[in-house]
Prior knowledge:
Distance between the termini: 10 Å
CATH architecture of the domain at 715-951: Alpha-Beta Barrel
Strand order of the largest sheet: 24-27-28-29-32-31-30
Structural class: alpha/beta
Strand content: 15-25%
Radius of gyration: 27 Å
Number of strands: 32
Amino acid sequence: MSAATDRLGVKREFELGGGRKGRLYSLPALEAQGAGPISRLPVSLRVVLESLLRNCDGQRVREEDVRALAGWRPAAERTAEVPFVVARVLLQDFTGVPLLVDLAAMRSAVARLGRDPGAVEPQVPVDLVVDHSVQVDVAGVPDALARNEAMEFQRNRSRYEFLKWGTQAFETFRIVPPGFGICHQVNLEYLAKGVLEKDGVWYPDTLVGTDSHTTMVNGIGVVGWGVGGIEAEAAMLGQPNYLLTPDVVGVHLTGALREGVTATDLVLALTELLRKTKVVGKFVEYHGEGARTLPAVTRATIANMAPEYGATLGFFPVDEQTLRYYAATGRSAEQVEAIRGYFTAQGMFGIPRRGEVDYSTVVELDLGSVVPSVAGPKRPQDRIALGGLKERFRSLLAAPAEGGGFGRKPEELGRKFGVAKGADGAARPGGGSQEPRTAPVLQVVQNTNPLTELEMMNNRPTPDRPESSLGRTATDDEIRLGHGDVVIAAITSCTNTSNPGVMLAAGLLAKKAVERGLTVSPTVKTSLAPGSRVVSDYLAKTGLQPYLDALGFNVVGYGCTTCIGNSGPLDPRIEDVVTRNDLVCAAVLSGNRNFEARIHQAVKANFLMSPPLVVAFALAGRVDLDVEKEPIGLAKDGQPVFLRDLWPTVAEVDALLGTGSDPAAYRQNYADVAGQNRAWLEMPAPAGEVYAWDAQSTYIREPPYFLPFPAQPAPIAPVRGARALAVFGDSVTTDHISPAGSIKPSSPAGGWLQENGVQVPDFNSYGSRRGNHEVMVRGTFANVRIKNLLVPGVEGGVTVHQPSGRRMSIHEAALAYEQEGVPLVVFAGQEYGTGSSRDWAAKGTRLLGIRAVVARSFERIHRSNLVGMGVLPCQLPDDVTAQSLAIDGSETFDLEGAEGALAPRQRVTLAIHRKDGRTDRVPLTLRIDTPIEVEYYRHGGILPYVLRQIVGR
Length: 953
């Protein structure tokens, strides 16, 4: 990496506080040189500008890059790229394992070339938090935490040993072990420093992370966002994170939240508002008097949901509320004063008032207009006012599937179904008559759900576990389920568990409910997964945890659980009742995502809500209920209990908030991160600079990206005579493209695992096997809910091979086309690639032989990841769809102009050759957005590009 120098002559001394002095690259000094009206730039852009200024070396960052951003204009056309050099990188284990695999593969490639493998070394600090692997196998019992953590280690030992190898192989690679917390909450409470220092120079804490909710740290004034693993690898290896100069949407907040309205209600309102505003790919910055009054934990909740409203980040500048949070979470007084001194010296301290900063556009929200809400049943932006949930659910139940509904008959509402009985009256564990487990699920017709979901439910990661291990169990007679009944209630996700206000509110509501004699039905799987151990500390100190325990909300783990689909199994009898009767049952969770089939593959309606509302709906046991008017249960004296009777007041919550802001508790919790997990400490791990690949491992395999690895990239091959592997509709998520959940025995990935000696109970999940490309490529487009329009009425990863007309799995068809030398394209609608920053959605696409994805629009991270893997993202004109082009799979395609010397966002032409001999041509926009992305694509992706830079030094 080239050493940065003060090329623009702006290094200045400033007051750190306490008589200390430091040096910084001064934005006011740059403005005084006439570089532009920097003091009127959005604060988030000024932080990025500081990075350019400090890292300006004439190579990675040029002087013209600095001056271009300093002269940012709110409404200008966005053509310039910003080479943002971040201070650090944050990983979680699901995305971190494949990243470490790639780094290990790069070292192996360098070693094969006879060079020093140590040249492949992160150039910035890297923190990996192991938080995505714990599952809610056991819930509702006192020892749920210990049992879940034990099973987590049993399942993931191979991955964890590989991660431990990484800590000794790479000097700048640190790990927060399992059982400690969720990466974003740990980042908020511990890893984030506000400002950093190196060689006497102070600069803002900035980062990219391999999880889209990295934006949570924007709530405390840290600029950072989620990227795919391949982008994070480039950042780790000293490459700037290139992005188009962004528009910045200012969100002007006024007023104050009303009594009874939570931070969760506010973020759901903002998610709905900003999705409608279309902020995809833009910076969002909050300002105004309303923003000033929000505590940092509420800001973090809002920032966490930036991916849900589509923004690159959701930023709150540093102010007194920020400093108060840093102090309350155990940061030293010297660090807090350094943050104050630095941002004051840069003219960036304080939330701007309206008119003080120039934004591309300004959106208004009166905090007093926010009402209690939930969101769902399939998307986080689909907000429903709490009082309207009953009618909304009932209307969706009867609405057709193509309209976002469930296609059920209204008269089905209210019917209850129980456990199937045999002729002798005994419960039949399998549930009455059912198809055999070997039934062909790859060709299931939509709405024949019992067949599809039976296979899914039979493929839980540990399907042979005794029923009693689930914790609380219901008797056969207690299992009476119908549409709208709640079967999962989870207080989960860093979005809300980082906020003591809503967590204490949940505990207070539980306390009042227990005191009134209310209980939760054993048919509801309840769980509490705090984002850090500090949450358990203050719930214990306030005496609220026992009341949560009494309702079944025992702690099940410290990590991402239900929010990412690690909800674990339901009682097999409950699963059978749901699947056999095709019920639309519900999950209620305090998470950030509720995409179809994400939470649990048998649960179709998933609603996001605040932690106290999760407790309330667990008590009610159903979502087709107006909790503002109807009772949620009966007290021990037989009297009806309403939500208003249980809801804690702001004063009641405020009286306990001090326990959630105890600096000593945070300092104690994070005093010895590595030493607090004995199982992790005692686990042996491989050693050495280069990883010794095990060809028999089904978890960690050397990927094929550098086998072989030519010194120079080959010329860009034209895309001619391509076939459509799939045609998708709108809102195809990265979960659809590369699922993280269970692996079906009959799927291509399941077949490969069985061929390699893995028994079905040991399959684990796609997410846990991301270090093995053999599994992951077979899992690409394997989500059981994905709908390939080339195979109408069918769900799952199937397609039709052309010209044979044979129906087969997508992986099988891709192999056939590869043998025939046929390149592949995929067509999609709007918002292709929404959801998690999942690099395997792009890696699997490339390994299937897909050369281009033609869509109406792309989500930011996935578009970038496609380019980073050498796949062309091409955008259709606004009024054109695959349906309007009548693409049925019989066509062949050429991409004219997509070879040779490419330019960012150039026009190319899609030539569609029909089977009747006609040819239609459609203009496309090549969504390679920046010059550096052209280079990435020319090299076959970011990793080959970076590796050639390393080898060429």
